Amino acid sequence: MTAATAIETQASPVITARDLDLTFQTNDGPVHALKGVDLDINEGDFVSFIGPSGCGKTTFLRVIAALETPTGGEITVNGMSPDEARRKRAYGYVFQAAGLYPWRTIEKNIKLPLEIMGFDRAEQARRVEKVLELVDLAGFGKKFPWQLSGGMQQRASIARALAFDADILLMDEPFGALDEIVRDHLNEQLLKLWARTNKTIGFVTHSIPEAVYLSTKIVVMSPRPGRITDVIDSPLPTERPLDIRDTPEFLEVAHRVREGLRAGHAYDD
Questions:
Q1: Does this model's pTM top 0.70?
Q2: Contact by Cβ (8 Å): 218, 211
Q3: Residues 232-252: pLDDT tens digits?
Q4: Strand, coil or helix: 61
């Protein structure tokens, strides 16, 4: 057994879904968002969810975060229901838009969840300083969101989600609106952040290269109703310079993701 295999064997699931269904009732009839989803996410995994628009990627992330309630099957987060995990601050959530309050400075935006949780001022200041360094925004705490670029605002949003030090970080396509150069840079920074913090990360994306570059595991989903068509354990090394995307190993995984997306379209609703 290799060292990597031994580590994987010892890892324990922090998120487990079994036969998970979610159907929304609308004025136009039921919308089947998720169907029969089975998945384990282990401690320290970086898991990307990829699929066409409307396939249930974000819905599944929202189920983990107790923002949506499944209509069938089971899901646990740290051995608890998602709602219990939410109350115990088990995860931080990063949305597609940075969602920073324009009238608060960056450090005060990051402090907001800490204020709500009742941390004292000294602890708030310590945590803000720490997470600003983690996302390479040290020295920008007194700035307002409108004084920062889009990429810097998203890094501030990530810092806010990290401020209360949850073990799980859920990220809903946080870089989708950014240009390719900024996106590449933030992908590199996110990998470094993950390596430093050892968080378990769930990451929604529409980009095949982004999913393959970032992940230890890639979950490929079909069009609605959202099913999992493939779960790919990445063979890529932990250290990933951007030019790894030109290697045969990277291209092979990207090809499998693409084939999984095509296979998903063969399902009948």
A1: yes
A2: yes
A3: 999 999 899 999 999 999 999
A4: helix
Place of tokens 């396509």: 173
3-state secondary structure of 230: strand
CA–CA separation, 189 and 265 (whole Å)? 34
Q: From CA 208, how far away is CA 206, in angstroms rounded?
A: 7
Sign of the alpha-carbon dihedral angle for 141, 142, 144, 148: negative
11 contacts 44 by C-beta, under 8 angstroms: yes
**Is the separation of the CB atoms in 22 and 63 below 8 Å?**
yes
**Structure tokens given for 249:** 């190993």
29/33 Cα distance (integer angstroms): 13
d(CA 70, CA 168): 20
**What is the DSSP annotation of 134-193?**
HTT-TT-TTS-GGGS-HHHHHHHHHHHHHTT--SEEEEESTTTTS-HHHHHHHHHHHHHH
Asked if the model's pLDDT at residue 32 lies above 70, the reply is yes
Tell me if 192 sits within 8 A of 198, measured CB to CB.
no
Q: What is the pLDDT of residues 166-195, one digit of tens each?
A: 999 999 999 987 888 889 999 999 999 999
Asked whether 210 and 190 are in contact (CB, 8 A), the reply is no
Look at residues 129, 103, 99 and name the one whose alpha carbon lies nearest to residue 114: 129
Q: Which residues contact 218 (CB under 8 A, 6 or more apart)?
A: 47, 48, 50, 211, 212, 230, 231, 232, 234, 253, 257
What CA–CA distance (Å, rounded) separates 36 from 57?
14
Beta-bridge partner residues of 233: 217
